[in-house]
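Section 3.1 - Work completed
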Amino acid sequence: MLPSMKMVNVCRSDDFDFFQPFISTGKLTAEQMQHACSRYFLGKTKSGAPMFWMIDDMMQPLDAHIGNAWISSLLKQREPVLAYWQVQHCLFGLHLLEVDYPISIVESEASAVLLSELFPDSIWMAYAMTSHLLPDLLAPLQGRTVTIYPRTDPTMSTYLFFLDYATSVRSLYPSIDLHIDTTLENHASEEQKERCIDLVDFLLE
């Protein structure tokens, strides 16, 4: 059985631990958590692990990220008939593309969900893993303004990777107005850079 919206809806949930630091400090409400979970079709496994569905701009679920695993790998292990399934990925949150807002991209799906309520004037998406971040992953964003918010690190290697990545994307898709944000490089402390924090960590701290 390939992923479907029926499968997505069976797993739906609107209560996740990663919201709690923001709810307990008054930065977000339980109602905002429920709103964000609904918009992103968040799910949970039977063991309580979050399921972040990659749903494309045609509302087709392509895969789901569960911890360090992908539901496509789990399904292939369970169903030998799926061995030749050519799995595709898209940006997490791509199904929200129809709203004409600027697009902001982070690594973590949980961070994208949180930021969507903290800064609702952008469409927040996530790429989940750098290894999946080929330039054509941004092809659906042609004609849009896009900002990527890289994690920081002590050597600036992530930031420099995204500068090169932006060059590749612009050469293929010149209509994407692509920017690489420098907030963490300019304002994170050396100790925060050692921990490779992302934008949500920075805001919480």
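Second construct:
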Amino acid sequence: MSMDIKQIQDLIKFVAKSGVNEVAIEEEDFKITIKTNQVPTYVTATVPTAAPAPLPVAAPTAPAPEAPKQTTPKAEDTSNYLTIKSPMIGTFYRSSSPDKPAFVNVGDEITTGKVVCIVEAMKLFNEIESEISGKIVKILVDDAQPVEYDQPLFLVEPK
């Protein structure tokens, strides 16, 4: 693997936007480490032993027009819940692989530092750890769905 300067610049921009503190990529003939001076986030990256096949990059599409918001008298009150948000852009996974159980399910008690999901970004699988303690009351994203930076992933009832 060798990267041209444009790919390296894109990677630096991606790392800066994602909120990750440090990314290191090492191949036989190539090594790059990108560090940012941001406040550390609670993300640990693990590299799979068998690298997945490269995914085709889809061209960005125009956002769909927003449907008018409907208010119903029985709207769920979520003001007392805390939200776990995505620290980066990527693909959301509820488990470490398709044959493994989900990290968390609705009703599970979580504590600070518990891995709640994985967000895969640029072939790096980032374990997302909870920064709060409580009970999972709602999972807001489907497995294998793309997520945006700061997108809510879970609603948690604090302890």
